[in-house]
User: Which sequence fits this backbone?
């Protein structure tokens, strides 16, 4: 009885695969073909050039609804966090930047932020809609980046190719500015952060227009408010550094399972592509019988689902865990709870309140 069930499952899978292949072929005839980017070598510096640019990597938008509770959505949300960590590590490895931090959302905390939304990610293909913007609101570049890992690239370390390309594009945009322009951006970012912290502060120092922005003047170096703002800013840095530690711990737990899931995905797609090629050519080798193809197809599919379920279980466990963050100021201890975005928003509000109390407002 069990053998019959397996045989029926195989037939169903092959039938669905064939139908899916035909539907995919029809869709591709109507839609423009995806342009896959050629893997790039990461541009690495022996010593980062001055002035050092701090970069924020915003948590990737997983591209799924928060209400979606399917295994695929849970895996995507977990993967979006892993990919944000991978991008951060690529930027650090390039040795081109100052401090690279993961942040729940972009702000004037750093001069430049990278924001990306996952349009497609299936273990083999990764398509990102990337936006790089500075703290003053100027867009450096916006680009769709698509990378397909070849079936002969097993064992490759993640989607290294697309992150190398993104790091290189960021470097080109930064080096296109003069040293003076780079320094002005860093100084203007500090003023913008102060203005976000306390609206109305340092007004008139940055002139904004439809053509862009201009730094008019800097505050006095001995302004006592600068010291207080700098202290608040370092407390916000501390939160991001604490989150980095959490992501490092997360990656260590789930990375092996994630790698197996991607391996299973590649294996399944390898068999699917070979099957579609044979079906398109309408020729099947005699040694490659229908039953052997069904067995191979089912084995690849079963391996993929097993790894997907394992990754889903890890994703569910991580989502279900309470991940409070304990933060300390000079004389108080705060326990932040809720989603990472909620914790970050709460901490920034607390820092603003602390600053206002110190000001006597």
Assistant:
């Amino acid at each position: 009885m069990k053998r019959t069930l397996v045989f029926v499952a195989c037939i169903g899978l092959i039938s669905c695969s064939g139908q899916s292949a035909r539907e995919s072929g029809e869709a591709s005839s109507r839609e423009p073909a995806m342009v896959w980017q050629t893997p790039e070598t990461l541009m690495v510096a022996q010593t980062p050039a001055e002035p050092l640019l701090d970069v924020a990597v915003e948590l990737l938008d997983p591209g799924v609804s928060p209400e979606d509770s399917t295994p695929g959505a849970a895996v995507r949300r977990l993967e979006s966090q892993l990919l944000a960590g991978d991008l951060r590590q690529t930027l650090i490895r390039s040795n081109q930047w100052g401090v690279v931090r993961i942040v729940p959302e972009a702000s004037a905390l750093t001069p430049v932020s990278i924001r990306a939304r996952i349009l497609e990610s299936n273990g083999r293909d990764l398509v990102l809609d990337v936006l790089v913007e500075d703290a003053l609101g100027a867009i450096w570049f916006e680009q769709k980046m698509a990378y397909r890992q070849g079936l002969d690239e097993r064992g490759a370390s993640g989607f290294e190719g697309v992150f190398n390309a993104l790091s290189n594009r960021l470097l080109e945009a930064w080096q296109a500015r003069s040293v003076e322009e780079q320094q002005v951006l860093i100084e203007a970012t500090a003023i913008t952060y102060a203005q976000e912290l306390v609206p109305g502060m340092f007004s008139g120092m940055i002139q904004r227009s439809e053509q862009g922005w201009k730094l008019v003047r800097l505050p006095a170096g001995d302004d006592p408010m600068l010291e207080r703002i700098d202290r608040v800013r370092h407390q916000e840095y501390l939160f991001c550094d604490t989150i980095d530690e959490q992501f490092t711990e997360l990656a260590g737990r789930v990375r092996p399972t994630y790698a197996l899931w991607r391996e299973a995905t590649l294996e399944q797609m390898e068999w699917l592509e070979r099957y579609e090629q044979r079906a398109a050519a309408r020729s099947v080798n005699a040694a490659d019988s229908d039953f052997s193809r069904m067995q191979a197809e089912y084995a690849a599919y079963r391996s993929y689902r097993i790894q997907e379920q394992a990754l889903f279980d890890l994703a569910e466990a991580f989502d279900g865990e309470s991940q409070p963050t304990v933060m300390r100021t000079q004389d108080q201890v705060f326990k932040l709870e809720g989603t990472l975005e909620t914790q970050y928003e709460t901490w920034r509000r607390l820092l603003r309140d602390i600053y206002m109390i110190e000001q006597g407002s």
Summary: The chain has a mean pLDDT of 76. Helices lie at 2-30, 71-94, 160-175, 179-197, 224-281, 290-320, 340-359. The radius of gyration is 25 Å.
